[in-house]
Amino acid sequence: MKRLFGICAMAAFLGSCTVGHQITVTNNPVGTKTGVAKGTNFSKDLDITAEKACSNGGITKIGTMEFKATQILFFVKFKTTVTGE
Q1: Do the domain assignments include residue 77?
Q2: In this predicted model, what pLDDT tens digit does every residue of 61-72 receive, in sequence order?
Q3: Would you say the pTM of this structure is higher than 0.90?
Q4: Bridge partners of 59?
C-alpha cells in the first residue's frame, strides 16, 4: 500500500499540464523571422506580450502568434512566439 501511494505521489509531482493556442493574427504571410518572449509566474518583470516577442525577433509585420503555458505544481512557464517579417 505504501508503494502504491509513493508511486501516485511521484506521478502527481512529476506530471505537468501544457496549454497552447496558435492563431493567425493578420493576413500577412507567415514569414521567416521568429520572436520569442518567455517568463515564469515568479518573474519580477513578466513581459510575455506580442510586442516584446516582436522586438526580440525584429518583426514589424506579424503573421502568426502562439501562446503556451506549462504548469508543474506551482510553477508556470509562459512562452509567446511570433512569426512574420
Answers
A1: yes
A2: 999 999 999 988
A3: no
A4: none
